[in-house]
């Protein structure tokens, strides 16, 4: 299965029989002791879960239906690449006991994660231009970072605490950039760049931090951009 960074993806798994499911285990091949997801006693069990997957995974259906034990992985990053295995324990209807968890997975899924498709935009000098970016989820946005690939330490635009932050902004972009919508709506974190010049050519990257609705805390800023835009400026 292939996915772009920032997307949500479903890793398919089907239970062996139509018996009641007691346990579902999802693991990645790089971890023996920790789970991607553990479902037992009709609920998710966060114990021994790999920290990077917390609050980003769930089963497609809870309660399980149609023998579907597929995993939903949200806001994928390059670090999520790997081979995922699904194992299942079902109740034995004849004895009313657990059918043993086999050592063999019932599903093996290879996940490949690639950067988001780059968008090419051309503008004439003096025009205003919109560089598109969409947040990964519909959660409240805490931080939006726009950078150009020629600067590591300075921003094109930094939005945090519900306002623009001019600190560490590249001087050439001051008073020429804004977000398309403030406050953010419809997951739109697009950048408006006014009065473009030939010096504005380059590749722009958008990164986002959202609030985790389950914990009320920040969801980590991934190292991967959610949008990459190549801007060309012509006379």
Automatic annotation (TrEMBL):
Top-level taxonomic group: Eukaryota
Would the keyword Disulfide bond turn up in this protein's UniProt record?
A: yes
Domain (Ig-like) spans: 1-102, 105-227
Name the PROSITE patterns on file: IG_LIKE
The keyword Isomerase is assigned to this record = no
GO BP: regulation of cytokine production; regulation of leukocyte cell-cell adhesion; regulation of T cell activation; T cell receptor signaling pathway
The identity of this protein, by name, is Ig-like domain-containing protein
Q: Which organism is it from?
A: Poecilia formosa
